[in-house]
Write a structure and sequence with these properties.
The protein has helices at about 1-45, 255, 315-320, 325-330, 390-405, 405-415, 440-455, 460-480; strands at about 55-60, 65-70, 70-75, 80-90, 95, 110-115, 115-120, 125-135, 135-145, 145-155, 165-175, 180-190, 200-205, 210, 215, 225, 230-235, 245-250, 280-285, 290, 295-305, 345-350, 350-355, 365, 375, 385. By secondary structure, the protein is of the alpha+beta class. Strand 16 and strand 17 form a beta hairpin. It is globular. The N and C termini lie far apart (about 115 Å).
Length: about 475
């Protein structure tokens, strides 16, 4: 009996040892296969021997990415080269602050290299990927043998008391060509919050912006907000470590979406046009920078958000920066090869250039502020067109619209666009003059009608009726 028990125990031990050994072999095989697959994946991505991403890192990919920190959410579609921003209210309901139409393509970054313009969204000649490291999202654009452009969105708190409610946006441009070239960055943000309210935008001192306006200096304006009854987006392009733009425009989207590099702002217009109704946007152009091969320039701005009727506090963060912090917080986010000493990062801040290169290879900022005539280059492939643009007209226009009272603006509007009493409004289509069929004249009619309808207390009903009848007649004739 003891012999049988001994043999049974021995057999159990043998089987257990065999099973254990088999299990270890299987684990070793799986580990080897996993390592092999990992190496193949890394090799495919151009990173041989690299280990799997850890610590909240996502390697460059063409898959859609959604990242949320605090109340701010960014969604990126790298196959289209586009992104969108939404904010969450106290009930975690997401509210879009930029247009989500057409797969986000109405918000776009443009790069002008010398005289050739590249739109980075939905562009066949631009390769786009998205990556993430901790709380920073990187949208990487590659124009082969021309430039690498990176939009880095860093999620931060405006004040210690608040949840993350702010994004620091850094656009980095690296010259990947072999020759020195002039690089200029433009961005169009298709805002939507103010489109269903009386005023599309507000200045830093809460003055409504009711018509298109252009600024060449934001020192006095500081920031703007796009908002509705509950949600606000604060746009900060001046102060702290921001990069002062050469041109800042609040306009109808169709004005900024034209093929001209600089928008045509020669006349006062509302945010409504014949082509686009109640559709506002922000346009920003930074100073042109001359970059040698492998040099990089950064352009920085901030977006701050608030929901549930609160006010954004991005100005407290940006204008609260000490001079020491200002000098230490701007970093290059583009790809740099440390082993190549010719790499240079240029931080565009308040119109100046800082560089660690020697004077003979220092990059240059091209300043056109003193010119009164500007060439407006069309998108690559089209012929260049020239449009005369006078700074005096622009500055006068800015003062009229942004700084004067509504009564003064209304008076000037009436002086320039109200039909004189001696002019009769003729509604016979055959007798309408040719000039009344121009987009400019129709736009003036639309603007005047909108102005009259806003002032319901003292509206001139007869004038309003005649203007509407005239507009109907013109549109009917155009349809014919």
């Amino acid at each position: 009996m003891k012999k049988i028990i001994f043999i049974s125990a021995l057999l159990i031990s043998v089987f257990s040892f065999t099973a254990c050994a088999s299990s270890k072999k299987l684990e070793a095989k799986n580990a080897t296969e996993a390592s092999s697959n990992e190496k193949k994946t890394n090799k495919k991505n151009g990173k041989k021997g690299a280990k799997a991403s850890k610590n909240n890192i996502i390697e460059a990919s063409t898959k859609d990415l959604t990242h949320k920190e605090g109340i701010v959410q960014v969604k990126v579609k790298p196959k289209m080269g586009t992104y969108n921003i939404a904010v969450a209210d106290e009930n975690e309901k997401l509210i879009q602050v930029l247009s989500a139409a057409n797969e986000y393509t109405t918000t776009n970054i443009f790069l002008k290299v010398d005289k050739k313009v590249y739109g980075l969204a939905a562009a066949p000649n631009v390769k786009c990927t998205v990556s993430k490291k901790d709380n920073v999202v990187f949208i990487n654009y590659e124009i082969n043998k021309v430039a690498d452009v990176v939009l880095a969105m860093d999620f931060i708190q405006s004040t210690p008391e608040r949840d993350i409610d702010m994004v620091k946006c850094t656009i980095s441009v690296k010259n990947t060509g072999k020759k020195k070239a002039a690089f200029t960055v433009k961005e169009v943000l298709d805002t939507i919050l103010g489109e269903k309210t009386d005023s599309h935008f507000y200045t830093f001192d809460n003055q409504p912006v009711k018509t298109e306006v252009l600024y060449r200096n934001l020192k006095l304006q500081k920031w703007f907000t796009s908002r509705n009854e509950s949600t606000s987006m604060q746009l900060l392009f001046d102060g702290g470590d921001t990069s002062a733009p050469e041109l800042f425009v609040l306009a109808n989207y169709s004005t900024l979406a034209s093929s001209y590099w600089e928008p045509d702002m020669a006349t006062i217009r509302s945010f409504n046009t014949v082509l686009s109704y109640n559709n506002s946007a922000v346009g920003v152009i930074w100073p042109s920078v001359n970059l040698l091969s492998e040099q990089t320039a950064d352009f920085v701005y901030y977006l701050a958000f608030a929901t549930d009727g609160a006010k954004p506090c991005g100005d407290q963060y940006v204008y609260g920066m000490s001079s020491e912090k200002k000098n230490n917080t701007t970093e290059s986010v583009s790809i740099k090869k440390d082993e190549e000493p010719k790499d240079t990062v240029i931080n565009i801040s308040e119109g100046l250039v800082s560089t660690n290169k020697t004077p003979e290879t220092k990059a240059e900022v091209v300043n056109t502020d003193n010119n009164s005539t500007y060439n407006k280059d069309e998108v690559a492939g089209n012929e260049t067109q020239t449009n005369v643009y006078n700074d005096e007209v622009t500055n006068s226009y800015n003062d009229d619209v942004a700084n004067e009272s509504e009564e003064v603006v209304k008076k000037k509007f009436e002086e320039n666009y109200t039909p004189k009493a001696t002019e009769s409004v003729e509604f016979n289509v055959k007798k309408l003059s040719r000039e009344k069929f121009t987009p400019e004249y129709i736009q003036k009619l639309l603007d005047r009608i909108a102005e009259l309808e806003k002032d319901s207390a003292s509206v001139n009903r007869d004038e309003l009726l005649k203007l509407n009848q005239e507009l109907d007649q013109i549109l009917e004739a155009l349809r014919e």
